[in-house]
Amino acid sequence: MAYEIIFSSRAAKQFRKLPKTLRKRIAEPIDGLVDKARPHGVKKPSHQHNLYRLRVGDYRVVYEIKDKQLRILVLVIAGRAEIYKRFL
């Protein structure tokens, strides 16, 4: 069962602004979500039902899993401090 990965406009913009080396580093775990939407090490914020966060160094990728449609919607890609202050 392979999932389709879709970026929100906000996440796409954040991803494009990252340095090339960091984009590569973050893209690998995101691409891995295609085969395993809930890999080991992914956390689910306690107050969010369908959201998950993936840790890549000091960056976090927040995404939503839509199991019925086999889609993963990447919502935010940002530094750790920004994620916790503004999003979670």
Give the topology.
Blueprint: E1 4-7, H1 9-17, H2 20-32, E2 51-56, E3 59-66, E4 71-79, H3 80-87
Parallel strand pairs: 1-4
Antiparallel strand pairs: 2-3, 3-4
* CATH-derived topology: YaeB-like fold
Beta content comes to 25-35%
Structural class: alpha+beta
CATH architecture level-2 label: 2-Layer Sandwich
List SSEs in N-to-C order: EHHEEEH
The separation of the N and C termini measures: 29 Å
- The helix count comes to 3
Oligomer: single chain
Average residue pLDDT: 91
- Domain count: 1
> What Rg, in angstroms, do the CA atoms define?
12 Å
Question: In the CATH hierarchy, what is the class?
Answer: Alpha Beta
Apparent shape: globular
What is the helical fraction, as a range of percent?
25-40%
Widest sheet: strand ordering: 1-4-3-2
Q: Compute the number of strand runs.
A: 4
CATH superfamily: RelE-like
- Largest pleated sheet: 4 strands, mixed
Task: Give the uncertain stretches in residue-range form.
Answer: none
Care to describe what's here?
The structure is a single chain. By secondary structure, the protein is of the alpha+beta class. The chain has a single domain, classed as YaeB-like fold (2-Layer Sandwich), CATH 3.30.2310. The chain has helices at residues 9-17, 20-32, 80-87, and strands at residues 4-7, 51-56, 59-66, 71-79. It has a four-stranded mixed β-sheet. The longest helix is centred in the N-terminal third of the chain and has 13 residues, at 20-32. The protein starts with a strand and ends with a helix. The model has no long low-confidence stretch (mean pLDDT 91).
